[in-house]
Amino acid sequence: MEIDEDYENSKFKIVNVLTYRDRVCVLVKVLFMKRYNGYYSYNGYVSLKKPGILQKLFKIPYEKSYSMFESLAIDGLTYDGYLGTDYRKRGSTSPYIKLIPEDLYFFGFDTLHAHNNEENSSYEAVLRKTMNLADNMIKEGI
User: Fold this and answer.
1) pTM of the model
2) Measuring CA to CA, which of 41, 59, 91, 136 is 20 to 30 A from 15?
């Protein structure tokens, strides 16, 4: 169930932080763009196994890493970074921010694509996609 805490002037509202199969998963409601029929989209993020895993496995910098794993997410990956740090830099006042460790690196996706609709961009659908992304990352050892 969505927890709808309200905080001022936020374009991205963290609505859930959970642990799934030893991964931190984060769901974010996108507030700056209400879809044409009145629903909001969500983004999903999953932490990597541990800091530094991609550099050790593939000898590549994180900043260019998620493009190697586009097939992991149904909507394609559109984010990689230190999610907790990024939100803190934006001045997030979310009560959830303290649940996101600053040293965890995340892959994430959004649902603001032309093929997305209310059914596949809902909180429940994005939660399922986020868990699926976590499953795929675990399967690949990421």
Assistant:
1) 0.79
2) 136
